[in-house]
Design a protein that fits this description.
326 residues, alpha/beta, UDP-N-acetylmuramoyl-L-alanine:D-glutamate ligase, 9-stranded mixed β-sheet, 5-stranded mixed β-sheet, 40% helix
Amino acid sequence: MTATEIDVLGVGNAIVDVLAEVDDDFLVAEGIAKGGMTLIDTARASALYARMPPGVEVSGGSAANTMAGIASLGGRCAYIGKVAADQLGAVFAHDIEAAGVGFATPPLVDSEPTARCLILITPDAQRSMNTFLGASTFLDSSDIDADLIAAAQVTYLEGYLFDRPEAKAAFFAAADIAHRAGRRVALTLSDTFCVERHHAEFTRLVAEVDILFANEGEARALTGEADFESSVRALAAHCPIVCVTHGANGSVIAAEGKVHPIAAAPVERVVDTTGAGDLYAAGVLYGITTGHDLPTSGRFGSIAAAEAIGHVGPRPRQSLKALIGA
């Protein structure tokens, strides 16, 4: 893949996901906040992993999942993220390249191991994430490929990356390169706790973002508004395109003074909500970069999200291109 062929370039935390099904009592015993994301250190990662039941290990990371979704839709994409020169790093690189996503970020040597996220899935399909960021946070400005960014229609940035100054600098460098090249920047707020940790910086950044993705909780946390509709209006006042998901109620896309309601796609059984927002973003970004209008792009997002929640794991198991009828 050459730099001139990219529709969307993702920048984020390169993580290997470990998913296991547990009951609510397990969360209580481990002191884990249900439905959120908690950053953990090496010792906690080892201890929690040892107590988890058998699970599934797959390459993950929010923006990486979105790029895998875009590739499944038939889009052209690449990814920038940091792994270590270790076994899990090799697994991550193999998986994302096998999904059809370009990946050439040099690995970290003789330092932190590859990041992993321990995801506990309860019977109500909620996922509680415990993340050891490891090598992923060592992404810095030297890893930012200016040619890729300048060639991509959209550079998609993952809010989780804000948790280390060097990675944050890389984040802003990527946005600056994209805008200087006349390209668009998309941002996902990632997580309510992430918004709370970086509220002032996210508020400032949203005014410079072209396409914003959030769920209801993230939107309310950033705006301080008490309800869904008010938070959407507040975000739309500062960002050209705002996409806010609303669980089983679907989502809305607000742009140019209009709010487009997007129905949730039907799903036979909700198994695991991990990756639903990531694949929703994949569908919307694919639609936008291939010339579809916003309601159609939103429909693509809903179909992709429905595929994700019908099985364990954040990556599509069916061809999303076939599901949307492209």
